[in-house]
Amino acid sequence: MDELLSFVFDSAIEGMLFLDSGFRVLEANAAVASMFGLSPAALKGQDVFDPRWRLYRQDGKPMVQEDRLAFQALLRGEAPGPGLIGLGQSDRPEPLWLQVKARPRPLSVGREGLGGTEFLLITLENVTEARLAQDRLSQRMASLNAINDYALELDATSIGGLYDLIAESARIIFDARAGAVASYRPETRELMLEAISLTASLESGVTRLIGRGLKKLAAPVSEDEYRTMMELKVGLASTLQEFSFGKVPAKISEAIERTLGIGWFRGIVLVSEGKLFGGLGLAGALGEEAPPSEELRVFGEITANGLRRKAAEARIEGLLEEKEALLKEVHHRIKNNMNTMISLLSLQSQSCKDGDDAVQALQDAMSRLQSMSTLYDKLYRGEDLQSLSLADYLPTLVREIIATFPGGEGVELVFKVEDIRLGTRQLPLVGIIVNELVTNAMKYAFPAAKGGTLAILAQGRQSRVVLTVKDNGAGLPPGLDAGQSEGFGLSLIRILAKQLDARLSIENRRGASFSLDFPVR
Q1: Which of 174, 215, 171 is nearest to 197 (CA)?
Q2: With 70 as the cut, is the pLDDT of residue 284 above it?
Q3: Per-position b or e across 146-176, b if 16+ CB within 10 A of its CB
Q4: C-alpha torsion 61→67→70→71, nearest 10
Q5: Which stretch of DSSP H or E encloses residue 27?
Q6: Are 470 and 514 in contact (CB under 8 A)?
Q7: Collapsing DSSP states into helix, strand and coil, what is residue 148?
Q8: CA angle 142, 145, 149 (to 5 degrees)
Q9: Among 146-160, 289-303, 317-331, 472-486, which stretch is predicted with the lowest mean pLDDT?
Q10: Could you tell me which residues come within 8 angstroms of residue 339 by beta carbon, excluding any fewer than 6 positions away?
């Protein structure tokens, strides 16, 4: 039986140790001896907490004297659960990670009247590969999380700071010594270096080597190189000359690699929806592992899609600016044409005899055109070409109408106009109606240039507008039914009110009051 147990002990795949209460080795099998790099015989009598063994805690920090406390429970006959320790070895940079299980054999209470531990059975399982796999998974998850954060930041960054963000983020996420991003210019078929991320000392060293700044360096792209880039997702290179399709001379390539201490190059082609937007280059330090190609590909796709969206946004903004400029020009020309027509009507009226009905008709036409000219002047000068506030439009319009009448300065104007925005479909109708009402008030409410009060009110009520023009003048003539009058001015008001889908109400008490209640559209 002893031979069988000895055979099992010596041939076990797991490392097995018997320790005394001072943590010195009593017995060791071949598996554990190989972990410590000694023979079983040489391991006997060794203190497993000897500093030369270079033991590490689970968090990767070296074990210290206080860490023995974790084993003190064993001396009291308690058996803790599995633990993880690292064992440093001279032939490898990373420690050997071992899962430790301990089972004490208690002393009998009657032996010398003491309780305690006679010896400890320690089993050690090599879990280094599992630990490294877990570390790689954790690193990859951290990298993917960083890429996800980068994608969000990319969307939120203006196009002016886009390339600097790409170069800096790529260098940091993939732990590279240098990152550079270039845009592709299809009109000239060349790559233009837009941004580079590296320390100031390294950048100055590279600048000295090539004799100029790095940004805006341009390199032509041949047909073959273009096809190669479109076919690639991630390119691998061992030298800068190879990485640049031979455009960087060998001597400069070698000098830069020495200056930066470069050991690897990776190129990420930025292609989205079959269109080349540029390329991203990374350079890593000698002796360090290059990032996985899959993560680089994901980063490249996110970057290319971001560049495509930003380019589309820039085109849309450009088109909008062009449209606004054209609309302003249209409004400006309409206003000029109206002024020309107003001038022509004025000349025509001067050729008519005083008191002639034609003079009054021409002046009425001029007044209506003036209301439209005022509207287009406001739209032309404003930022929004599709709408205008009544608070900005009506006071200016009314004052311009009053100024054309003799004695207009004697009329007191009262404005209670809220900031209600109307679109260009409703504004001309409102302008002409107000023009007719104010003109009628000046003609008939205050005869012989008598002063009075003219009030213009506009209030918003749940997506509707109530517009009122009222005076304290002579009022409507007796027997006049404004709702049925065949006069041109009142007929025009009724027609335009119908186009506004407005309810028109008229009061003739202490002056005349005209109100329109219409929806905002």
Answers
A1: 171
A2: yes
A3: bbeebbeebeebeeeebbebbbbbbbebbeb
A4: 120
A5: strand 25-28
A6: yes
A7: helix
A8: 135
A9: 472-486
A10: 373
